[in-house]
Amino acid sequence: MNNTVRSNRKYSRYCREHADEFRDQLRGEANAALGWPARTAAILLVVATIITYMDAIGRGNPNAVNTIFSYSFSVAIVVLYPVLSLVFSQIEKYSVQFIDLLCFSGIIGFSLVVLNVFDGAETAEELPSLYLVLQAQIAFVLALALAFSFHNNIYITLLRNIIFTGLAAALMFAIDREFFELNELPLAEGFFFGTLLNWVFHDGVRTRFYLKSTDADTRQHLYNQLSKLVYPHQLERIKLGDELENTMPLKEGKAIINVFDVQRSSEIRHEKTQEFFMGVFQSFLQVCMKGYEHNPLRSRAFRLKETGDGFISAVGYPFLPIDSRSLADSAVSTALTMFAAFNVEVEKFNYSRPIKGAMGLAYNSVQGTFQSGGIRSYDLFGDALIQASKYEELRKQPVLWKIFSDYAKERGYDDFHILIVQEFVYNSLSPSYRELFAEIDLSDERLVEKEFHMMYDNEARYIYFHLLE
Q1: Bigger pLDDT: 172 or 10?
Q2: How confident is the model at residue 312 (pLDDT cuts 50, 70, 90)?
Q3: % of the chain beyond a pLDDT of 90
Q4: What is the CB neighbour count within 10 angstroms for residue 306?
Q5: Is pLDDT of 412 > 80?
Q6: What residues have CB less than 8 Å from 34, skipping those under 6 apart?
Q7: Distance of alpha carbon 257 from alpha carbon 32, whole angstroms
Q8: Rounded to whole angstroms, what are the CA distances from 24 to 103, 188, 209?
Q9: Bond before 318 cis per omega within 30 degrees
Q10: What does pTM read for this prediction?
Q11: What structural domains and CATH numbers belong to the chain?
Protein backbone atom coordinates (compact mmCIF):
# COMPACT_ATOMS: atom_id res chain seq x y z
CA MET A 1 0.00 0.00 0.00
CA ASN A 2 1.60 3.28 -1.08
CA ASN A 3 1.91 6.38 1.08
CA THR A 4 -0.84 8.27 -0.78
CA VAL A 5 -3.43 5.60 -0.04
CA ARG A 6 -2.32 5.44 3.59
CA SER A 7 -2.59 9.23 3.89
CA ASN A 8 -6.06 9.28 2.33
CA ARG A 9 -7.27 6.62 4.73
CA LYS A 10 -5.68 8.45 7.64
CA TYR A 11 -7.31 11.77 6.64
CA SER A 12 -10.65 10.08 6.05
CA ARG A 13 -10.55 8.31 9.41
CA TYR A 14 -9.57 11.50 11.21
CA CYS A 15 -12.44 13.42 9.58
CA ARG A 16 -14.91 10.73 10.59
CA GLU A 17 -13.65 10.82 14.16
CA HIS A 18 -13.97 14.62 14.18
CA ALA A 19 -17.15 14.84 12.12
CA ASP A 20 -18.53 17.91 13.90
CA GLU A 21 -15.31 19.90 13.50
CA PHE A 22 -14.99 18.81 9.86
CA ARG A 23 -18.60 19.87 9.23
CA ASP A 24 -17.80 23.28 10.68
CA GLN A 25 -14.74 23.50 8.45
CA LEU A 26 -16.86 22.73 5.37
CA ARG A 27 -19.43 25.32 6.42
CA GLY A 28 -16.65 27.85 6.67
CA GLU A 29 -15.36 26.88 3.23
CA ALA A 30 -18.88 27.14 1.78
CA ASN A 31 -19.36 30.53 3.41
CA ALA A 32 -16.09 31.72 1.89
CA ALA A 33 -17.11 30.31 -1.52
CA LEU A 34 -20.25 32.42 -1.38
CA GLY A 35 -17.98 35.45 -1.20
CA TRP A 36 -15.75 36.55 -4.05
CA PRO A 37 -15.75 33.15 -5.90
CA ALA A 38 -19.56 33.24 -6.12
CA ARG A 39 -19.48 36.91 -7.10
CA THR A 40 -17.05 36.08 -9.88
CA ALA A 41 -19.39 33.32 -11.06
CA ALA A 42 -22.33 35.76 -10.92
CA ILE A 43 -20.41 38.21 -13.11
CA LEU A 44 -19.74 35.41 -15.60
CA LEU A 45 -23.45 34.54 -15.61
CA VAL A 46 -24.32 38.17 -16.29
CA VAL A 47 -21.80 38.29 -19.13
CA ALA A 48 -23.15 34.99 -20.54
CA THR A 49 -26.68 36.35 -20.28
CA ILE A 50 -25.73 39.48 -22.22
CA ILE A 51 -24.01 37.44 -24.93
CA THR A 52 -26.99 35.09 -25.19
CA TYR A 53 -29.37 38.04 -25.33
CA MET A 54 -27.36 39.79 -28.08
CA ASP A 55 -27.16 36.55 -30.08
CA ALA A 56 -30.92 36.01 -29.70
CA ILE A 57 -31.58 39.60 -30.84
CA GLY A 58 -29.33 39.03 -33.86
CA ARG A 59 -31.32 35.94 -34.78
CA GLY A 60 -34.60 37.75 -34.36
CA ASN A 61 -35.64 35.49 -31.47
CA PRO A 62 -38.89 36.80 -29.95
CA ASN A 63 -37.91 35.24 -26.59
CA ALA A 64 -34.69 37.24 -26.39
CA VAL A 65 -35.96 39.29 -23.42
CA ASN A 66 -36.75 36.12 -21.48
CA THR A 67 -33.11 35.00 -21.64
CA ILE A 68 -32.18 38.01 -19.50
CA PHE A 69 -33.99 36.49 -16.53
CA SER A 70 -32.71 32.91 -16.91
CA TYR A 71 -30.00 33.25 -14.29
CA SER A 72 -31.73 35.93 -12.21
CA PHE A 73 -32.37 33.57 -9.27
CA SER A 74 -28.73 32.43 -9.20
CA VAL A 75 -27.46 36.01 -9.28
CA ALA A 76 -29.97 36.98 -6.58
CA ILE A 77 -28.60 34.25 -4.27
CA VAL A 78 -25.07 35.60 -4.65
CA VAL A 79 -26.14 39.22 -4.15
CA LEU A 80 -28.50 38.64 -1.21
CA TYR A 81 -26.46 36.10 0.77
CA PRO A 82 -24.01 38.64 2.29
CA VAL A 83 -26.93 40.89 3.26
CA LEU A 84 -28.88 38.01 4.78
CA SER A 85 -25.83 36.80 6.71
CA LEU A 86 -25.45 40.25 8.25
CA VAL A 87 -29.11 40.40 9.27
CA PHE A 88 -29.41 36.74 10.29
CA SER A 89 -26.09 35.53 11.69
CA GLN A 90 -27.37 31.94 11.98
CA ILE A 91 -27.80 31.73 8.21
CA GLU A 92 -24.11 30.90 7.81
CA LYS A 93 -24.94 27.48 9.27
CA TYR A 94 -26.79 26.79 6.02
CA SER A 95 -24.03 27.96 3.67
CA VAL A 96 -23.64 24.37 2.34
CA GLN A 97 -27.33 24.32 1.40
CA PHE A 98 -27.00 27.73 -0.24
CA ILE A 99 -24.21 26.37 -2.43
CA ASP A 100 -26.44 23.44 -3.44
CA LEU A 101 -29.27 25.87 -4.17
CA LEU A 102 -26.95 28.03 -6.26
CA CYS A 103 -25.78 25.01 -8.30
CA PHE A 104 -29.36 23.77 -8.66
CA SER A 105 -30.54 27.19 -9.87
CA GLY A 106 -27.62 27.28 -12.33
CA ILE A 107 -28.87 24.08 -13.97
CA ILE A 108 -32.43 25.45 -14.06
CA GLY A 109 -31.13 28.74 -15.49
CA PHE A 110 -29.23 26.99 -18.28
CA SER A 111 -32.32 24.92 -19.06
CA LEU A 112 -34.36 28.13 -19.35
CA VAL A 113 -31.77 29.52 -21.75
CA VAL A 114 -32.04 26.40 -23.89
CA LEU A 115 -35.84 26.53 -23.76
CA ASN A 116 -36.03 30.19 -24.80
CA VAL A 117 -33.47 29.80 -27.55
CA PHE A 118 -35.13 26.72 -29.06
CA ASP A 119 -38.67 27.97 -28.56
CA GLY A 120 -37.84 31.20 -30.35
CA ALA A 121 -36.28 29.56 -33.39
CA GLU A 122 -38.06 30.77 -36.54
CA THR A 123 -37.59 27.56 -38.54
CA ALA A 124 -36.76 23.89 -37.87
CA GLU A 125 -33.75 24.31 -40.14
CA GLU A 126 -32.27 26.80 -37.64
CA LEU A 127 -32.23 24.28 -34.78
CA PRO A 128 -29.09 22.34 -35.84
CA SER A 129 -27.01 25.51 -35.70
CA LEU A 130 -28.47 26.29 -32.28
CA TYR A 131 -27.66 22.74 -31.16
CA LEU A 132 -24.00 23.39 -32.01
CA VAL A 133 -23.98 26.71 -30.13
CA LEU A 134 -25.39 25.20 -26.91
CA GLN A 135 -23.91 21.72 -27.13
CA ALA A 136 -20.45 22.91 -26.10
CA GLN A 137 -21.86 24.48 -22.94
CA ILE A 138 -23.66 21.44 -21.48
CA ALA A 139 -20.65 19.51 -20.14
CA PHE A 140 -19.09 22.72 -18.79
CA VAL A 141 -22.22 23.97 -17.01
CA LEU A 142 -23.00 20.56 -15.52
CA ALA A 143 -19.39 19.99 -14.38
CA LEU A 144 -19.35 23.43 -12.78
CA ALA A 145 -22.59 22.71 -10.91
CA LEU A 146 -21.30 19.36 -9.65
CA ALA A 147 -17.72 20.33 -8.82
CA PHE A 148 -18.46 22.37 -5.70
CA SER A 149 -20.13 20.57 -2.84
CA PHE A 150 -19.38 20.97 0.86
CA HIS A 151 -21.04 17.92 2.39
CA ASN A 152 -18.82 16.05 4.81
CA ASN A 153 -20.03 12.68 3.52
CA ILE A 154 -18.78 11.99 0.00
CA TYR A 155 -21.67 9.59 -0.63
CA ILE A 156 -24.16 12.40 -0.04
CA THR A 157 -22.22 14.44 -2.58
CA LEU A 158 -22.31 11.55 -5.06
CA LEU A 159 -26.09 11.21 -4.59
CA ARG A 160 -26.47 14.98 -5.04
CA ASN A 161 -24.49 14.86 -8.29
CA ILE A 162 -26.57 11.97 -9.62
CA ILE A 163 -29.78 13.89 -8.83
CA PHE A 164 -28.49 17.08 -10.47
CA THR A 165 -27.35 15.16 -13.56
CA GLY A 166 -30.70 13.37 -13.77
CA LEU A 167 -32.48 16.73 -13.45
CA ALA A 168 -30.38 18.24 -16.26
CA ALA A 169 -31.02 15.21 -18.47
CA ALA A 170 -34.77 15.26 -17.76
CA LEU A 171 -35.02 18.96 -18.57
CA MET A 172 -33.04 18.54 -21.80
CA PHE A 173 -35.29 15.65 -22.77
CA ALA A 174 -38.42 17.66 -21.99
CA ILE A 175 -37.21 20.70 -23.94
CA ASP A 176 -36.01 18.89 -27.05
CA ARG A 177 -35.65 15.13 -27.38
CA GLU A 178 -33.31 15.33 -30.35
CA PHE A 179 -31.06 17.79 -28.49
CA PHE A 180 -31.00 15.41 -25.51
CA GLU A 181 -30.01 12.45 -27.71
CA LEU A 182 -27.21 14.49 -29.25
CA ASN A 183 -25.90 15.41 -25.79
CA GLU A 184 -26.04 12.14 -23.87
CA LEU A 185 -22.23 11.90 -24.01
CA PRO A 186 -21.63 15.54 -22.90
CA LEU A 187 -24.04 14.93 -20.00
CA ALA A 188 -22.03 11.85 -18.98
CA GLU A 189 -18.78 13.77 -19.41
CA GLY A 190 -20.11 16.61 -17.28
CA PHE A 191 -21.14 14.17 -14.54
CA PHE A 192 -17.82 12.32 -14.38
CA PHE A 193 -15.66 15.42 -14.81
CA GLY A 194 -17.67 17.36 -12.21
CA THR A 195 -17.60 14.45 -9.76
CA LEU A 196 -13.85 14.05 -10.25
CA LEU A 197 -13.27 17.75 -9.64
CA ASN A 198 -15.48 17.53 -6.58
CA TRP A 199 -13.49 14.61 -5.19
CA VAL A 200 -10.21 16.50 -5.71
CA PHE A 201 -11.74 19.58 -4.09
CA HIS A 202 -13.18 17.57 -1.18
CA ASP A 203 -9.86 15.77 -0.65
CA GLY A 204 -8.06 19.11 -0.58
CA VAL A 205 -10.42 20.47 2.08
CA ARG A 206 -10.10 17.26 4.07
CA THR A 207 -6.30 17.36 3.91
CA ARG A 208 -6.20 21.02 4.98
CA PHE A 209 -8.55 20.24 7.85
CA TYR A 210 -6.40 17.32 8.99
CA LEU A 211 -3.15 19.27 8.80
CA LYS A 212 -4.60 22.37 10.44
CA SER A 213 -6.30 20.40 13.20
CA THR A 214 -3.35 18.16 13.97
CA ASP A 215 -1.03 21.16 13.79
CA ALA A 216 -3.29 22.97 16.26
CA ASP A 217 -3.31 19.87 18.49
CA THR A 218 0.46 19.67 18.29
CA ARG A 219 0.88 23.36 19.08
CA GLN A 220 -1.52 23.07 22.00
CA HIS A 221 0.36 20.03 23.28
CA LEU A 222 3.66 21.87 22.97
CA TYR A 223 2.13 24.87 24.72
CA ASN A 224 0.87 22.66 27.55
CA GLN A 225 4.26 21.03 27.94
CA LEU A 226 6.12 24.34 27.76
CA SER A 227 3.84 25.69 30.49
CA LYS A 228 5.42 23.10 32.79
CA LEU A 229 8.83 24.69 32.21
CA VAL A 230 8.12 28.41 32.33
CA TYR A 231 5.74 30.79 34.04
CA PRO A 232 2.51 32.02 32.37
CA HIS A 233 3.89 35.52 31.82
CA GLN A 234 6.87 34.00 30.01
CA LEU A 235 4.53 32.05 27.72
CA GLU A 236 2.60 35.19 26.88
CA ARG A 237 5.73 37.18 26.09
CA ILE A 238 7.13 34.35 23.97
CA LYS A 239 3.83 34.19 22.06
CA LEU A 240 4.21 37.92 21.38
CA GLY A 241 7.63 37.28 19.86
CA ASP A 242 9.88 38.03 22.82
CA GLU A 243 13.04 36.03 23.47
CA LEU A 244 13.06 33.64 26.43
CA GLU A 245 16.05 35.45 27.93
CA ASN A 246 14.00 38.67 28.14
CA THR A 247 11.13 37.16 30.11
CA MET A 248 12.78 37.11 33.56
CA PRO A 249 14.84 39.70 35.50
CA LEU A 250 18.59 39.41 35.01
CA LYS A 251 19.97 42.43 36.86
CA GLU A 252 21.36 42.15 40.37
CA GLY A 253 18.91 42.49 43.25
CA LYS A 254 18.34 41.67 46.89
CA ALA A 255 16.34 38.74 48.22
CA ILE A 256 15.84 36.47 51.21
CA ILE A 257 16.67 32.92 50.20
CA ASN A 258 14.89 30.03 51.92
CA VAL A 259 16.70 26.69 51.87
CA PHE A 260 14.57 23.78 53.10
CA ASP A 261 15.80 20.28 53.85
CA VAL A 262 14.32 17.19 55.48
CA GLN A 263 16.20 16.15 58.59
CA ARG A 264 17.77 12.67 58.32
CA SER A 265 15.99 12.09 55.02
CA SER A 266 18.36 9.23 54.14
CA GLU A 267 16.90 7.25 57.03
CA ILE A 268 13.37 7.26 55.61
CA ARG A 269 12.45 3.75 54.48
CA HIS A 270 9.14 3.59 52.65
CA GLU A 271 7.94 2.37 49.26
CA LYS A 272 6.32 5.76 48.54
CA THR A 273 9.15 8.02 49.66
CA GLN A 274 9.44 9.64 46.25
CA GLU A 275 5.71 10.33 46.14
CA PHE A 276 5.95 11.90 49.59
CA PHE A 277 8.67 14.32 48.48
CA MET A 278 6.75 15.17 45.31
CA GLY A 279 3.70 15.98 47.41
CA VAL A 280 5.78 18.19 49.70
CA PHE A 281 7.31 20.09 46.79
CA GLN A 282 3.93 20.51 45.10
CA SER A 283 2.45 21.96 48.29
CA PHE A 284 5.47 24.29 48.61
CA LEU A 285 4.98 25.43 45.02
CA GLN A 286 1.37 26.30 45.78
CA VAL A 287 2.56 28.40 48.71
CA CYS A 288 5.09 30.17 46.49
CA MET A 289 2.61 30.87 43.69
CA LYS A 290 0.01 32.49 45.92
CA GLY A 291 -0.82 35.96 44.59
CA TYR A 292 1.15 35.43 41.36
CA GLU A 293 0.71 38.18 38.80
CA HIS A 294 2.88 39.50 36.02
CA ASN A 295 2.35 43.25 35.88
CA PRO A 296 4.47 43.80 37.87
CA LEU A 297 5.96 40.38 38.54
CA ARG A 298 4.98 39.34 42.05
CA SER A 299 4.12 36.29 44.12
CA ARG A 300 4.56 35.06 47.66
CA ALA A 301 7.89 33.48 46.73
CA PHE A 302 9.82 32.21 43.74
CA ARG A 303 10.58 28.50 43.53
CA LEU A 304 14.20 28.26 42.55
CA LYS A 305 14.81 24.51 42.52
CA GLU A 306 14.13 21.14 44.07
CA THR A 307 17.16 19.22 45.29
CA GLY A 308 16.10 15.63 45.91
CA ASP A 309 14.87 16.08 49.48
CA GLY A 310 15.33 19.87 49.54
CA PHE A 311 13.57 22.94 48.23
CA ILE A 312 15.01 26.41 47.59
CA SER A 313 12.88 29.51 47.15
CA ALA A 314 13.42 33.27 47.10
CA VAL A 315 11.37 36.13 48.53
CA GLY A 316 11.79 39.55 46.93
CA TYR A 317 13.58 38.55 43.72
CA PRO A 318 12.86 37.92 40.87
CA PHE A 319 9.23 38.34 42.00
CA LEU A 320 8.20 41.15 44.27
CA PRO A 321 6.38 40.17 47.49
CA ILE A 322 2.57 40.26 47.40
CA ASP A 323 2.05 42.42 50.50
CA SER A 324 3.42 45.62 51.97
CA ARG A 325 5.08 43.98 54.97
CA SER A 326 8.84 44.00 55.29
CA LEU A 327 10.69 41.46 53.20
CA ALA A 328 11.77 39.69 56.38
CA ASP A 329 8.19 39.39 57.63
CA SER A 330 7.10 38.01 54.26
CA ALA A 331 9.91 35.46 54.25
CA VAL A 332 9.23 34.22 57.79
CA SER A 333 5.47 34.09 57.16
CA THR A 334 6.11 32.04 54.02
CA ALA A 335 8.48 29.71 55.89
CA LEU A 336 5.89 29.06 58.62
CA THR A 337 3.24 28.38 55.98
CA MET A 338 5.58 25.89 54.33
CA PHE A 339 6.12 24.08 57.62
CA ALA A 340 2.34 23.83 58.05
CA ALA A 341 2.02 22.41 54.52
CA PHE A 342 4.87 20.01 55.27
CA ASN A 343 3.04 18.73 58.36
CA VAL A 344 -0.04 18.03 56.25
CA GLU A 345 2.01 15.94 53.82
CA VAL A 346 3.73 14.09 56.68
CA GLU A 347 0.37 13.24 58.19
CA LYS A 348 -0.83 11.86 54.85
CA PHE A 349 2.41 9.89 54.50
CA ASN A 350 1.65 8.19 57.84
CA TYR A 351 5.23 7.20 58.53
CA SER A 352 6.12 5.17 61.64
CA ARG A 353 8.53 7.83 62.96
CA PRO A 354 8.42 11.63 63.08
CA ILE A 355 9.70 13.44 59.99
CA LYS A 356 10.94 16.98 60.56
CA GLY A 357 12.32 19.71 58.35
CA ALA A 358 14.86 22.51 58.61
CA MET A 359 15.07 25.90 56.97
CA GLY A 360 17.72 28.55 56.69
CA LEU A 361 16.95 32.18 55.75
CA ALA A 362 19.55 34.69 54.59
CA TYR A 363 19.35 38.14 53.00
CA ASN A 364 21.92 39.28 50.47
CA SER A 365 22.54 39.94 46.81
CA VAL A 366 21.25 37.66 44.06
CA GLN A 367 21.20 37.83 40.31
CA GLY A 368 19.14 36.05 37.68
CA THR A 369 20.69 34.20 34.78
CA PHE A 370 19.84 31.82 31.96
CA GLN A 371 22.18 28.97 31.22
CA SER A 372 24.55 29.81 28.37
CA GLY A 373 23.81 26.72 26.29
CA GLY A 374 21.50 23.76 25.87
CA ILE A 375 18.22 24.05 27.74
CA ARG A 376 18.06 27.68 28.87
CA SER A 377 16.67 27.23 32.35
CA TYR A 378 16.44 30.24 34.66
CA ASP A 379 18.59 30.25 37.77
CA LEU A 380 19.80 32.51 40.57
CA PHE A 381 23.27 32.93 41.96
CA GLY A 382 24.74 35.15 44.64
CA ASP A 383 25.83 35.37 48.25
CA ALA A 384 22.27 34.97 49.59
CA LEU A 385 22.04 31.39 48.28
CA ILE A 386 25.36 30.35 49.80
CA GLN A 387 24.56 31.93 53.16
CA ALA A 388 21.02 30.50 53.37
CA SER A 389 22.40 27.04 52.65
CA LYS A 390 25.00 27.43 55.38
CA TYR A 391 22.39 28.65 57.89
CA GLU A 392 20.22 25.60 57.20
CA GLU A 393 23.26 23.35 57.69
CA LEU A 394 24.04 24.85 61.12
CA ARG A 395 21.78 22.20 62.64
CA LYS A 396 24.43 19.66 61.65
CA GLN A 397 27.01 21.32 63.92
CA PRO A 398 27.08 19.18 67.11
CA VAL A 399 27.57 22.14 69.42
CA LEU A 400 24.62 24.00 67.95
CA TRP A 401 22.44 20.90 67.75
CA LYS A 402 22.93 20.41 71.49
CA ILE A 403 21.77 23.97 72.09
CA PHE A 404 18.73 23.40 69.86
CA SER A 405 17.92 20.09 71.55
CA ASP A 406 18.26 21.50 75.09
CA TYR A 407 15.98 24.37 74.14
CA ALA A 408 13.45 21.89 72.70
CA LYS A 409 13.49 19.73 75.84
CA GLU A 410 12.72 22.78 77.97
CA ARG A 411 9.55 23.16 75.91
CA GLY A 412 8.69 19.47 75.88
CA TYR A 413 9.63 18.82 72.23
CA ASP A 414 11.05 15.38 71.47
CA ASP A 415 11.30 16.13 67.74
CA PHE A 416 11.05 19.50 66.08
CA HIS A 417 11.25 21.56 62.92
CA ILE A 418 13.88 24.26 63.02
CA LEU A 419 13.99 27.64 61.32
CA ILE A 420 17.37 29.38 61.48
CA VAL A 421 17.60 32.98 60.31
CA GLN A 422 20.42 35.37 59.66
CA GLU A 423 20.95 38.28 62.04
CA PHE A 424 20.13 40.71 59.25
CA VAL A 425 16.77 39.00 58.70
CA TYR A 426 15.97 38.94 62.41
CA ASN A 427 16.72 42.64 62.85
CA SER A 428 14.37 43.44 59.97
CA LEU A 429 11.42 41.57 61.50
CA SER A 430 8.46 43.20 63.16
CA PRO A 431 8.24 42.71 66.99
CA SER A 432 5.57 39.98 66.71
CA TYR A 433 7.88 37.82 64.59
CA ARG A 434 10.99 38.59 66.62
CA GLU A 435 9.29 37.12 69.66
CA LEU A 436 9.28 33.72 67.96
CA PHE A 437 13.06 33.45 67.86
CA ALA A 438 15.69 32.49 70.39
CA GLU A 439 19.17 34.03 70.20
CA ILE A 440 22.58 32.39 70.18
CA ASP A 441 25.54 34.68 70.78
CA LEU A 442 28.42 33.53 68.60
CA SER A 443 30.78 34.58 71.37
CA ASP A 444 29.13 32.04 73.69
CA GLU A 445 31.87 30.10 75.53
CA ARG A 446 30.35 26.79 74.38
CA LEU A 447 30.99 27.80 70.77
CA VAL A 448 34.40 29.30 71.53
CA GLU A 449 35.48 26.10 73.23
CA LYS A 450 34.54 24.12 70.14
CA GLU A 451 36.28 26.68 67.91
CA PHE A 452 33.06 27.26 65.97
CA HIS A 453 33.32 29.81 63.17
CA MET A 454 30.47 31.19 61.08
CA MET A 455 31.49 30.58 57.50
CA TYR A 456 30.39 32.81 54.58
CA ASP A 457 28.95 35.42 56.95
CA ASN A 458 31.90 36.96 58.81
CA GLU A 459 29.89 39.93 60.03
CA ALA A 460 27.39 37.75 61.91
CA ARG A 461 27.41 38.13 65.71
CA TYR A 462 24.24 36.20 66.51
CA ILE A 463 22.18 33.28 65.24
CA TYR A 464 18.42 33.19 65.67
CA PHE A 465 16.29 30.06 65.61
CA HIS A 466 12.68 29.07 66.00
CA LEU A 467 11.50 25.52 66.83
CA LEU A 468 8.13 24.05 65.80
CA GLU A 469 6.50 20.72 66.51
Answers
A1: 172
A2: very high
A3: 27
A4: 17
A5: yes
A6: 78, 81, 82, 95, 98, 99, 102
A7: 58
A8: 21, 32, 10
A9: yes
A10: 0.60
A11: 3-224 (no CATH), 246-468 (3.30.70.1230)
